[in-house]
Amino acid sequence: LFFLETSSLINQVQIERGKSALHLGAGLSFSEVEAQRAVVDSKLSKFREALEKIAFDPATKNVAEQAITALRSVRKEVEAKVAGSVAVPLYTKLIQDLLSLQISAARLSKYDGIETYLNSLTVLEMIKENAGRMRASLTNILSLDAAISSAQMAQLETIKSGISTGLRSSALILSSGGQEGIAKFTQSPDWAFVLQSYDTVIRRSGQGKYGVVPAEFFGAVSRSIEAIYKVVAGEIQLVSTRATDSRNSASSLFITLLVGSILLSACLLIVSSKFIYGLSRQLGEVANNMEHQSREVAGAAHQVSSASQELSASATEQAAALQQTVASVDQISA
């Protein structure tokens, strides 16, 4: 959800940046800029809701708040009629901050393999951002219709290179539908017109007078960026589906393991109960046998004791008889 809402917000801020550049070049009324700001504000509200639900650390959430504050500031600059070359970099900086939040969100992914697709989405977002920067920069240049500096040329070349590098990146992993969408974008007449306009500006950078209508260029590049955004949205939906499937698989595995643990515990309980019962019965039988034998020993001991008493009595009688005999002998002798 956060990735989707952030992507949607970035897309609308990019459009606001382009329209603001066109307005500052006297090619668009401020009312149209205001209308776009209203769209951005509606996306910003949903972005804030998603931000509250994601487990970012305080420092990362502070980046989001700084980007929102920067948006208010750059709008004031546009209202103050600063040059497009001043306003556009301010918009670009806050968009980069929003893109960094998407990278942070990708790192928070808890499902195997999902982080790879989220990283791929950030590459796709950077392609779109570079296309957006080209829209803002070239719109401003075409509106002024004057020569540009070597620094501006270098910036344009960096932007174009960023688009080409992103499209060739090995980190860009797209579905078949995503690949088809990117192919349509690169082969579209609109993108061909954008590249042609770029080449014209580079070729005539020393004198200006480019012969390209800013509004026409803006329309063509905006449609091209919208085509990229459709690919982004489609890929986000696929990643969301993958995450849901991973979550469901993890839940199913947990339930399976839980049920297995319960069944195993029940089996162990039954087996241990039977074992304890059997052991208790055997111990009871042993105790009974020992008790019986103890009784027999006690009986035998009683018999021995009786015999001993009888023997003692017999010995006493014999001793008395012997004494009488001795006495008789003594009398006879006397």
Short description:
The protein is mainly α and 334 residues long. The protein has helices at residues 2-24, 30-53, 58-79, 84-107, 114-144, 150-168, 176-187, 189-203, 214-333.
Explained architecture:
- There is one protein chain.
- By secondary structure, this protein is mostly helical.
- Helices cover 87% and strands 0% of the residues.
- The chain has nine helices and no strands.
- 29% of the residues are buried.
- The mean pLDDT is 83.
Strand content: under 5%
Percent helix range: over 70%
Succession of helices and strands: HHHHHHHHH
* Major sheet details: none
Comma- or semicolon-separated keywords:
334 residues, mainly alpha, 9 helices, 0% strand, rod-shaped
